[in-house]
């Protein structure tokens, strides 16, 4: 199968969220199954900081945009393991900037034009590279107009007209909603500005356009695929997703186990596996406590949180509950992340009150994230919603017991000891109610389990022995691709 994966970001070149992890790993996993895979990305300024830099080509094209034409080019690179060709869309006016989507906390005002250009330029790049895809896999609102362009302008094109489209939703909250002026900017006929395709409450909705035009739709966990069909999580598109329920699948993200592996991780001071995790984690924890200037006290459990300081991640619950547990003096907390200023201030205040118990590292650092997972005893993810989540998976791989709310991918990847609906071994603590009482109850349970070494070790072994590789997820995507091709053929 010839597969083209189109995304606005991918590791190691550009990342703001989970989409980048998927776009960096899934294409390589698909290639490992024997498929011909091409990844298409914008050529951001940060791309050239990753060695080796992509090589420019002589391929040029013009994209109609807003009554004129914008010229672009293509550079070629490879994914880090060399198995996937990467086509970078060159257009300095749109992509040669410090930020990916925003600068100084504000979105770029020309983001609609940037990603309209990228979507159509990606199709032109496929033609110039003679990829002839069977599947075009688009992701999130940034590429939502691509299947519309494909249907409107390229249906009879021999290089791309036969391709089926699969669209993945990584987070329903981000939809790319803009004014009606997007229609002439996109050079699309006004007939598409209707409730079935592009229009949403008088606005143009990029994500809706993609969901209406793709043959199949996926999202990043089975539970989230059901949640987004409800008003609470559907962000206004729940009725559309209910209508397309038979075309919607939830596939849990995998993990690059070459990068996330405590047995050979270069970011941690002591390597370990399922046979010696007690000693390995204790050594990592002691080194990290010393590095942070915390008392080296192995008898105190270390609770960790990594991610955005954002209300979605449950910080309005976590801050007051953390204060209660810090006051008890029988645990340590470590936080890594950036985000809302008022959360940063609250964490700084806790650090002043409890200097021997908490450290808040207001930055993003991949090496530190690895070290925290290796040192932590319990990992906190009290998210209000979580399409998939990755840190709860990293925690299980590294022997940290996750404490999560039952939502989205968290519900699909963590099994609670009290869950009577499954015979899977317990791997963490799951709570239902998004309130302080629910989180307090869950942390208390986690601390009791951590102090009961036989139960704790059994739970850690269960998490560390699970298969989190991308191969499992890639095989599920191949099944969806085949169904998308059949759906297109039946039209």
Describe the structure.
With 491 residues, the chain is an alpha/beta fold. It contains 18 helices and 20 strands. The protein folds into two domains: 2-254 and 471-489, Glycogen Phosphorylase B (Rossmann fold, 3-Layer(aba) Sandwich), CATH 3.40.50.2000; 277-467, Rossmann fold, CATH 3.40.50.2000. The strands form four sheets. The chain has a nine-stranded mixed beta sheet with strand order 3-4-5-2-1-8-9-13-14, with helices on both faces. A six-stranded parallel beta sheet has the order 17-16-15-18-19-20, sandwiched between helices. Strand 15, helix 11 (315-328) and strand 16 form a beta-alpha-beta unit. The model has no long low-confidence stretch (mean pLDDT 96). Helix content is 38%, strand content 19%.
Q: Whole-Å distance between the termini?
A: 20 Å
Global shape: globular
Strand content: 15-25%
Main pleated sheet: 9 strands, mixed
CATH class of the largest domain: Alpha Beta
Extract low-pLDDT stretches. none
Index terms:
18 helices, 20 strands, alpha/beta, 2 domains, about 500 residues, Rossmann fold, nine-stranded mixed sheet, six-stranded parallel sheet
Produce the secondary structure layout:
Elements: E1 2-6, H1 18-32, E2 36-42, E3 55-65, E4 68-78, E5 85-90, H2 92-95, E6 102-103, E7 106-107, H3 111-128, E8 135-139, H4 146-153, E9 164-169, E10 177-178, H5 182-186, E11 199-200, E12 203-205, H6 206-213, E13 216-219, H7 222-227, H8 231-234, H9 238-243, E14 248-250, H10 277-292, E15 302-306, H11 315-328, E16 332-336, H12 341-353, E17 358-361, H13 366-375, E18 378-381, H14 391-397, E19 401-405, H15 408-413, E20 429-431, H16 436-451, H17 453-464, H18 470-489
Parallel strand pairs: 1-2, 1-8, 2-5, 8-9, 9-13, 13-14, 15-16, 15-18, 16-17, 18-19, 19-20
Antiparallel strand pairs: 3-4, 4-5, 6-7, 10-12, 11-12
Helix pairs in contact: 1-18, 10-13, 14-17
């Amino acid at each position: 199968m010839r597969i083209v994966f189109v995304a606005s970001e991918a590791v190691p070149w550009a990342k703001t969220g989970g989409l980048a992890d998927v776009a960096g790993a899934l294409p390589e996993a698909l290639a490992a199954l024997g498929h011909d895979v091409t990844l298409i990305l914008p050529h951001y300024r940060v791309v050239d900081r990753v060695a080796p830099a992509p090589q420019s080509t002589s391929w040029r094209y013009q994209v109609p945009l807003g009554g004129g034409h914008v010229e672009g080019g293509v550079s070629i690179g490879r994914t880090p393991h060399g198995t996937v060709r990467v086509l970078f869309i060159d257009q300095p006016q749109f992509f040669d900037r410090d930020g990916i989507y925003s600068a100084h906390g504000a979105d770029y005002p020309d983001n609609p034009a940037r990603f309209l250009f990228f979507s159509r330029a990606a199709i032109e790049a496929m033609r110039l590279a003679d990829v002839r895809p069977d599947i075009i896999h688009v992701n999130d609102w940034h590429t939502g107009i691509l299947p519309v362009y494909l249907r409107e302008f390229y249906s009879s094109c021999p290089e791309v007209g036969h391709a089926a489209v699969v669209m993945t939703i990584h987070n329903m909250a981000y939809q790319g909603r803009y004014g009606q002026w997007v229609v002439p900017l996109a050079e699309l006929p006004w007939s598409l500005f209707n409730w079935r395709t592009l229009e949403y409450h008088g606005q143009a909705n990029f994500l809706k356009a993609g969901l209406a035009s793709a043959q199949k739709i996926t999202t990043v966990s089975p539970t989230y695929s059901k949640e987004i069909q409800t008003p609470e999580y559907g962000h206004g598109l729940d009725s559309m997703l209910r209508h397309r329920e038979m075309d919607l699948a939830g596939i849990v993200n995998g993990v690059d186990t070459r990068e996330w592996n405590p047995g050979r991780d270069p970011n941690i001071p002591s390597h370990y596996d399922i046979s010696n995790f007690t000693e390995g984690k204790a050594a990592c924890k002691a080194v990290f406590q010393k590095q942070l200037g915390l008392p080296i006290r192995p008898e105190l459990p270390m609770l960790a949180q990594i991610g955005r300081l954002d209300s979605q991640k449950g910080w309005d619950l976590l801050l007051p509950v953390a204060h209660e547990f810090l006051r008890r003096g029988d645990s340590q907390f470590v936080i890594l992340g950036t985000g809302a200023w008022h959360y940063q201030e609250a964490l700084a205040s806790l650090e002043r009150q409890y200097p021997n118990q908490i450290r808040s590292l207001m930055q993003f650092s991949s090496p530190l994230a690895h070290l925290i997972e290796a040192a932590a005893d319990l990992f906190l993810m009290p998210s209000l919603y979580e399409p998939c989540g990755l840190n709860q998976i990293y925690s299980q791989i590294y022997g940290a017991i996750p404490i999560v709310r039952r939502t989205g991918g968290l519900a699909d990847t963590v099994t609670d000891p009290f869950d009577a609906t499954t015979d899977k071994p317990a791997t963490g603590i799951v709570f239902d109610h998004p309130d302080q009482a629910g989180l307090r109850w869950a942390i208390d349970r986690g601390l009791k389990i951590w102090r009961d070494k036989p139960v704790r070790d059994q739970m850690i072994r269960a998490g560390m022995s699970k298969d989190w590789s991308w191969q499992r997820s890639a095989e599920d995507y191949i099944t969806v691709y085949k169904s998308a091709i059949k759906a297109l053929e039946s039209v």
